[in-house]
Amino acid sequence: MLRLLSSLLLGFYCLFLFGCGSFLPSSGPRSSTIKDAGDSKRMEGIHVVELDSKTLARFLQAQHKMGFADAFAAYGAIGHPIGKGDVLAVAIWEVAPALFGGSLDPRGSNAATNGMFLPEQMVDEHGTITIPFVGPVKAAGLTIEDLQRSIAASLEGKANQPQVLVKMVRSVSAGVTVVGEVSSSVRMPLTARGECLLDAIAAAGGTRHPVEKMTVQLTRDGQAKSMACEHILRDPRQNIRLKSNDVVTLFYKPHSFTALGATGRNEEVDFEATGISLAQALGRVGGLQENSANARGVFLFRFESPAVLADAIPGSEREVKAKKSIPVVYRIDMKDPASFFLAQQFTMQDKDILFVAHASSADLKKFLGLLVSVVYPIENFMNIND
C-alpha cells in the first residue's frame, strides 16, 4: 500500500509538472496563457503589448491629442450666422430727400435725416424678414454684416444712399445647451464675443460637486469628447470657444477600475476624474501578494484608442485606425526596476481591469495542499485497518 501511495504521489507530481496544474483552482488565467493570446484563434483580435518606454511614449503623445483643443481645433470661429426664430431689429439711414421720410435740410445741404427704425422681426420659417419697398430678404445663414450689405444693395435705386444697421435682439438658433451636475441646466445664447466652455459652466451656476471630481463632456456634430474639469482649468488651451448647438454635459460619476488576481484586494476601485497612475492603482489595492503573485505577470486589460497603437500592432495601420477601439492587454514586468518609473506615468482609464497572475510556486502550494487533503484520509484509513 505504501508503494502504491508513493507511486500515486509521484504520478501526481509529474502530471503537475506537465501542465495538470492548470486544473487547480485559480482566480484567472496564467501569465503564459495571456502572453500567448495572439496565437489563439479563440482570442483573435486581442493584442498583447509590452509596456516599455516606446509604448509609453506613444500613449502619452496620443493622450495629449485627446484634449478639446486638438479634437475640436477646426471649430469655434467668432460670429454666428442668423437662424430661423432669431429676432432682429433693422434701422435704415438715408440722405435727404429720403424714401423712408424726412426732408431737405433748411440750409439746403444734403445732411442726413433721422433713421427709420423698423419694428423688431422674427426670422420666419423660410429664413426671411420683410423690408418695406423690397419685400422678403433672406436672413438665415447670413452674418449680421452680410445681411446689412444685402438690405442696402436691395434698396439701391429706391432709397437715397441708404445705410443699414441690423441688431440681434434675441438669438434662439445660436446657443449652447448645458446639462448634468450643474446648479441649473440652461440654454446659453452665443454672441459675437465668442463664449468659451467655462463661460457656459458659469452661466449654468457652476458645478454641484468639487471641481476635481467632475468630468466635462462636449458633444459637437455627433462627436463626443470628455475631459476632467480640473484639466480645463489648468490648461487654458482646453477652454475652447463654443459653437452653436454644442451640448456641454457635466458628470459626477467617479471613474473606476477592477483589480483581480494576486493583489491585496480584489474589488472595483473608484478614482477621481483627474486620473491616477498605474502605480497608484496598485497601491490602492494593497499591491501584489508577496507569497503568491507573479511580478512578471501584471496585466492591464483595456479597450484602447486606435490612435495609441495603430503603428505598433500587426495589420494595416489604416484598418486599425478605422476601428473605434482595440482590445489590448498591457503586460508589465514589475521585476524590472524601470517598470516602476513607467507605472508612475502610465495613467488608468475608466473600466480598466488590472490582473496579477499567480506564480507557479503558488500553484505548487495549492497542489501540495490538495495532495495533503487526499493523503491524510488514506493514511488514517490505513491506520484504522492496521
Give a concise summary.
The protein has 386 residues and is of the alpha+beta class. The protein is 29% helix and 25% strand. The strands form four sheets. The chain has a six-stranded mixed β-sheet with strand order 1-16-15-17-13-14.
Could you please describe the fold and organization of this structure?
There is one protein chain. With 386 residues, this protein is an alpha+beta fold. It has helices at residues 2-17, 31-35, 53-64, 68-71, 144-154, 197-203, 229-234, 278-284, 306-309, 317-321, 338-345, 360-385; strands at residues 47-50, 87-93, 116-117, 121-122, 128-131, 135-138, 163-170, 175-180, 186-189, 215-220, 223-228, 247-251, 255-261, 267-271, 293-304, 326-332, 352-358. The strands form four sheets. A six-stranded mixed sheet has the order 1-16-15-17-13-14. A five-stranded mixed sheet has the order 9-8-12-10-11. Helix 1 runs antiparallel to helix 12 (360-385). The model is unreliable at 103-112 and 364-368 (pLDDT under 50).
Radius of gyration over alpha carbons?
35 Å
Proportion in helices: 25-40%
Distance between the termini: 12 Å
Side by side, the strands of the main sheet go 1-16-15-17-13-14
What is the 3D form? elongated
Number of strands: 17
Report the uncertain regions. 103-112, 364-368
The pLDDT mean sits at 79
Strand and helix order: HHEHHEEEEEHEEEHEEHEEEHEHHEHEH
Q: Characterize the main sheet.
A: 6 strands, mixed
Structural class: alpha+beta
Number of helical segments?
A: 12
Task: Give me the oligomer status.
Answer: single chain
Strand content bin:
15-25%
